[in-house]
Amino acid sequence: MNFSVSSNYQFPTIGFINALSMQNGKQENIEVYFSASLPSTIIDRIVGVNGTSIYETLNGNLYSDNLLTTVIGRIAISQTIFDILDSNMSGVFETTGQTTLFLPTGNITYVFSGQTIRTPDGRYVFPTVTYTFKTTSGTGYYQSSYGDVKITSLDSIDDSVLLRKFNIDLTFMNY
To answer: Would the pTM of this model clear 0.85, i.e. be above it?
Structure first.
């Protein structure tokens, strides 16, 4: 038997994306809000066996406005809070975790690490400051994106409403 094989196939060139080429992608800004103090937010907490840490999950609604009137998606936060016995007596607790924002066109995930404080009613919250974290992954529409998630605490003066503003700046590769 005689076989003749012909092909116009060319192997793809493997290259590296440099910082300059990534800056040319599509830019997008998303602003959403979340409140852990709403009845629609579910908080589960497990205290570690030795009583020195807490594993906590929060699941709630994401809103498109700071009055929390229009639901645009969901949020899932899983975090570990360390040294809850406050052995160094600082009143500040190291916290690390992951957050996923479930939006209509896909999900955005980021990991975080920072310091929380304990409120008189036993909640652990980030102080009224601003934190910025890098996105770690996306799905759907956000699959080819990278960027920053800037979180600002907008709590009420009496702490009756815990409000977080998520300002997400994304750049899309392959656009």
So the answer is: no
